[in-house]
Design brief:
The complex is a heterodimer. By secondary structure, chain A is of the alpha/beta class. Chain A has one domain: Rossmann fold, CATH 3.40.50. The termini of chain A are far apart. The mean pLDDT of chain A is 92. Chain B is an all-alpha fold. Chain B has a single domain, classed as Orthogonal Bundle (MetI-like fold). Chain B is built from nine helices and no strands. The chains are: A alpha/beta, B mainly alpha. At the A-B interface, strand 6 and helix 3 of A face helix 6 and helix 7 of B. The structure holds adenosine-5'-diphosphate and magnesium ion. The site of adenosine-5'-diphosphate has 10 residues of chain A, from helix 1.
Chain lengths: 256, 235
């Protein structure tokens, strides 16, 4: 059974229809890359999955259960708060909280979810900190735990952002151009963290302009064009030159 | 000038300065939270409230504080006597009479609080609107509630950004308190002037300047300290 089914997702901003009926599925442990030129709706798609935008039409199903349906009644704040945790999102601009240390960034949201008696709370917070330290170690930044974001390089900040997203154990982790805001020499460290997650069977949807990386890490590639999925297939299919003219043009433009 | 005059003047001025500090502290106490409420109102998605708030802010910021002070202090009394002459002794009359019974200090704090709340609300609004959307969205994606995001993520960044304009405004408030003398509030300038009128002494009035300088100096140091305290992060 698939972890995620997206069915007929549509989204307009005013008169412009940005998503014109997007449907795809993601299997457990699968890594999907989304390619497509600027303005094709990739960010909007990820934002819809993460409840930052409300789709006009369509359905989002996680583990066989509908978590969003345009036909169902409007979900409450509380429903959304619960359902959004199926997904994690790593932003292009990192969006770390500047006034918290690296460790604070990782633990803040989890700490706010802690309730109960004092003793329970203390042990829960201890667990969260422990989890944060091991997550930080997994992205190779344990030694930076007490640093503030402004003291880190862009690549380090993005690795912290990935660790922060991992803290809530999302079933599907989404990346929106995670290396686009980075200097070229810093993209490698972020991409290798993502590759490691792939090796650990994390289910991921990655919007990227890094062609070589997409080819290497993806199980499947979705090519978006003007709000529709114009092509979808294995990296070999997409990069074979037989996936259509738009795809070929895009890939050759990006690979220059 | 002998020492006893100097001590006497100093003590009297200190008394007036007490009133000045009182106006200052009470105004801050009320105008800071009121300003935050005003700023939310002026950013409201409910358009009539937003427009009403912005018009109100325009009126308050667009007219002299001295005039507002006079209206708050004398307005209710004028209204009450006009109504009395017209023979309409209804609840509005009662209310106007009640407001008219306020002492000058209360009227001063009311007028100052409303006035400064409007200035603060614009500073708060600018600060809140300058925080990138990504900060809210990162919080949302991590499952935080809107209130948690505001208090745990946004607020401190806003405070850091608004410290310089706020310190300006607050130092202006110190000196604006002297306007209260026109509605017979015995603040320090009023006391200083009284020596000129009763004893022909001008120097006590000049001497009041030292009190203001000292007060503003302390505030400047305090704001510098807060700024430094918040220097550990960039926002
Ligand atoms: N909040 C918004 N309001 C209006 N238009 C938007 C908004 N967000 C995105 N768009 C428009 O939707 C289109 C797709 O944007 P986006 O999803 O960011 O594309 P991509 O990530 O593929 O570059 C663009 O034309 C963009 O201008
Ligand atoms: Mg985008």
């Amino acid at each position: 059974m698939s972890v995620l089914d997206v069915i007929g997702l549509k989204k307009s901003f005013g008169k412009t229809e940005v998503l014109k009926g997007i449907s795809f599925s993601v299997e457990q442990g699968e890594v999907i890359s989304i390619l497509g030129s600027s303005g094709s709706g990739k960010t909007t798609l990820l934002r819809c999955l993460n409840f930052l935008e409300k789709p006009d039409d369509g359905e989002i199903i996680v583990n066989g259960r509908s978590i969003f349906s345009a036909n169902a009644k409007k979900p409450s704040e509380k429903d959304i708060a619960a359902e959004r945790l199926h997904f994690g999102l790593v932003f292009q601009q990192f969006n770390l909280f500047p006034q918290y240390t690296v460790l604070g960034n990782l633990t803040l949201a989890a700490r706010l979810r802690v309730h109960g008696k004092r003793a329970e709370r203390i042990s829960a917070v201890a667990e969260i900190e422990e989890a944060a330290l091991s997550t930080l170690a997994s992205v190779g930044l344990l030694d930076k735990k007490d640093f503030y974001p402004c003291q880190l390089s862009g690549g380090q900040q993005q690795r912290v952002a990935i660790a922060r997203a991992l803290m809530l154990s999302p079933e599907i982790l989404c990346f929106d151009e995670p290396t686009s805001a980075l200097d070229p020499e810093l993209t490698g460290e972020v991409l290798s963290v993502i590759k490691e997650l792939a090796a650990r069977n994390m289910t991921m949807i990655i919007v990227t302009h890094e062609m070589a990386f997409a080819k290497e890490v993806s199980d499947r590639i979705i090519f978006m064009d003007e709000g529709v999925i114009a092509a979808c297939g294995s990296p070999d299919d997409i990069f074979s030159g037989n996936a259509g003219e738009r795809v070929n043009k895009f890939i050759s433009a990006m690979s220059k | 000038m002998d020492l006893s005059t100097f001590v006497n003047v100093s003590l009297r001025l200190l008394e007036g300065f007490g009133t000045t500090v009182q106006i200052f502290c009470l105004t801050l106490l009320f105008s800071l939270p009121l300003g935050l409420i005003f700023s939310f109102a002026s950013m409201s998605r409910f358009t009539p409230l937003k427009l009403l708030m912005r018009v109100f802010v325009w009126i308050i910021r667009g007219s002299p504080l001295m005039l507002q002070l006079i209206i708050v202090y004398y307005g209710p009394g004028l209204l009450a006597s006009a109504m009395e002459r017209a023979g309409t002794l209804n609840i509005i009359y009662e209310f106007a009479e009640y407001l008219n019974s306020f002492p000058p200090l209360t009227a001063t704090v009311v007028a100052f609080s409303i006035n400064y709340a409007c200035y603060f609300s614009e500073i708060f609004r600018g600060g809140i609107e300058s925080i990138p959307r990504g900060q809210y969205e990162a919080g949302q994606v991590l499952g935080m509630t809107k209130i948690q995001i505001f208090f745990r993520v946004i607020l401190l960044q806003v405070i850091k950004r608004i410290i310089p304009p706020m310190s300006n405004e607050i130092i202006t408030l110190v000196k604006d308190t002297s306007l209260a003398r026109i509605i017979t509030c015995y603040e320090i300038i009023y006391v200083g002037e009284s020596f000129t009128k009763s004893q022909g002494l001008v120097w006590p009035l000049f001497y009041t300047g030292a009190f203001y300088l000292l007060f503003c100096g302390i505030l400047t140091i305090l704001f510098g300290y807060i700024e430094k305290k918040l220097d550990y992060f960039k926002a």
